[in-house]
Amino acid sequence: MPEPGAGEFGIVLRAAAHRLGLASKAPALVEPFAFGALGLNELRANIDAENAASLWLFSHAGFAHSAAIPGDRTSDGAPPR
After folding, report:
1. pLDDT tens per residue across span 55-67
2. Confidence band (pLDDT; 50, 70, 90) for 50?
3. In sequence order, what E strands does the chain have?
4. How far is the C-alpha of 17 from the C-alpha of 12, rounded, in Å?
């Protein structure tokens, strides 16, 4: 759970929508709402370390890597045991 003033968001697309440029538009659409209407001062994305496409997308949108959360999920996407 983020601290007060911080928010989290993620992008989920079905396979048919991959590589159409849709996900790259999400940060630009979310940021004005998050920092304006919601009054947040920080916006985070929780990304699986093996998801190279999302890591690239958020990096190019101006997000900085700040932490790795060990045990958050396994490499097959299942919750930790």
Report:
1. 999 999 999 888 7
2. confident
3. 6-8, 42-44
4. 10
60 sits in which H/E element: helix 52-60
The structure tokens 């659409």 sit at 29
- Provide Rg for the chain, Cα atoms: 14
What is the token pair recorded at 65? 């890597």
pLDDT tens for each residue of 7-49: 998 888 899 998 898 999 999 999 999 999 999 999 998 888 8
- Could you tell me which of 79, 31, 18, 32 has the C-alpha nearest to residue 45? 31
Is 73 exposed, middle or buried (CB count within 10 Å of its CB: 0-12, 13-18, 19+)? middle
CA pair distance 60, 6, nearest whole angstrom: 20
Beta partners for residue 9, in sequence order:
none
